[in-house]
């Protein structure tokens, strides 16, 4: 996910097909995907091992620490969870996470919203890579952007209704984008394993960005669209966890661990529309969330 979601027109009934499809596909089921070899899920990670972090802005962690001057338009923090893990385990880190990245940017170059284009993230993975973490999926089909841009804009016209959820109800015919995201993540794991057959691979889920039922000033969605947005991220995390099962990678469940710390909570670990703190970008993690993810990963790794 990128810290700057592109502004689009307010979705209306019978509006743009692209927006309707993106909304309608958030909650769709997942088709059966092929199974891939399991690789080396129990490989011990030791000091000096090579660690490559692939991901979007929830991995890059913009504003959660000092900006990595080498990250260009990707806006990576030097205190994001990959850097925290690398320091804790004394690993040789190559962090290629980038704001706005999709699963397609694993094998294709990315043009960030500012700065120069960056190479495919997979280029950082080599045969000697021991550990790879992958935090991707939320930008595919603009899933996250639809929720925090299109749905927010729709809510400005209808504060008490459910304009985004209504679009889904009125346009049930759609392709299965959530299932496609799951399959793309399986392909990402396969591509990583082809380059680093002995690497330990972890798929990182997303936190509870939105509350389950009731919004707040920092989350300006229509009242009826708050549970819709929550359910959309439940489906996204289901796609990530399913991809982990299908590919033999480990799944890191950030969703459960971040319960009670959504945008509207008393102790938010995700910044809202106008962050009151300087260490978080709109709709993106605060340092506390990055610390949480690092701890979860260290637990999985047994360190």
How would you describe what is shown here?
The chain has 303 residues and is α/β, with parallel strands linked by helices. The protein has a single domain (17-301), classed as Rossmann fold, CATH 3.40.50.1110. Helices cover 34% and strands 8% of the residues. It has 9 helices and 5 strands, in the order αβααββαααβαβαα. It has helices at residues 17-24, 57-60, 81-89, 143-157, 163-170, 177-195, 226-247, 254-257, 287-301, and strands at residues 50-55, 92-95, 129-135, 200-204, 250-252. It has a 5-stranded parallel beta sheet, with helices on both faces. Helix 1 crosses helix 5 (163-170) and helix 6 (177-195) packs parallel to helix 7 (226-247). The two termini are 28 Å apart. Mean pLDDT is 88; it is low at 2-22 and 29-35.
Give the SSE layout.
Elements: H1 17-24, E1 50-55, H2 57-60, H3 81-89, E2 92-95, E3 129-135, H4 143-157, H5 163-170, H6 177-195, E4 200-204, H7 226-247, E5 250-252, H8 254-257, H9 287-301
Parallel strand pairs: 1-2, 1-3, 3-4, 4-5
Helix pairs in contact: 1-5, 3-9, 6-7
Features:
single chain; 303 residues; alpha/beta; Rossmann fold; five-stranded parallel sheet; 9 helices; 5 strands; 34% helix
């Amino acid at each position: 996910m990128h810290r700057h979601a592109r502004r689009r027109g307010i979705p209306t009934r019978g509006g743009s097909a692209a927006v309707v499809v993106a909304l309608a596909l958030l909650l769709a089921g997942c088709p059966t995907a092929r199974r891939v070899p399991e690789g080396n899920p129990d490989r011990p990670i030791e000091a000096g091992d090579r660690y490559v972090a692939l991901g979007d802005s929830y991995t890059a962690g913009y504003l959660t620490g000092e900006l990595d001057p080498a990250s260009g338009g990707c806006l990576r923090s030097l205190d994001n969870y990959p850097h925290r893990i690398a320091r804790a385990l004394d690993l040789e880190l190559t962090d290629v996470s980038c704001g706005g990245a999709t699963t397609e940017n694993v094998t294709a170059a990315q043009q960030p919203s500012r700065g120069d284009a960056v190479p495919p993230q997979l280029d950082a993975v080599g045969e000697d890579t021991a550990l790879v973490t992958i935090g991707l999926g939320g930008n595919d089909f603009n899933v996250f952007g639809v929720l925090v841009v299109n749905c927010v804009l729709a809510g400005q016209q209808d504060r008490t209704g459910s304009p985004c959820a209504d679009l889904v109800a009125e346009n049930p015919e759609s392709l299965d984008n959530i299932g496609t995201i799951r399959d793309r993540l399986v392909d990402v794991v396969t591509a990583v394993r082809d380059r680093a057959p002995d690497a330990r691979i972890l798929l990182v889920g997303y936190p509870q960005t939105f509350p389950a039922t009731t919004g707040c000033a920092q989350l300006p969605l229509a009242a009826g669209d708050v549970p819709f947005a929550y359910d959309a991220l439940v489906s996204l995390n289901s796609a990530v966890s399913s991809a982990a099962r299908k590919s033999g990678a480990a799944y890191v469940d950030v969703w459960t661990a971040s319960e009670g710390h959504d945008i509207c909570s008393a102790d938010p670990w995700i910044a809202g529309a106008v962050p009151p703190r300087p260490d978080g970008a709109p709709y993106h993690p605060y340092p506390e969330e990055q610390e949480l993810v690092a701890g979860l990963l260290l637990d999985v790794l047994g360190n």
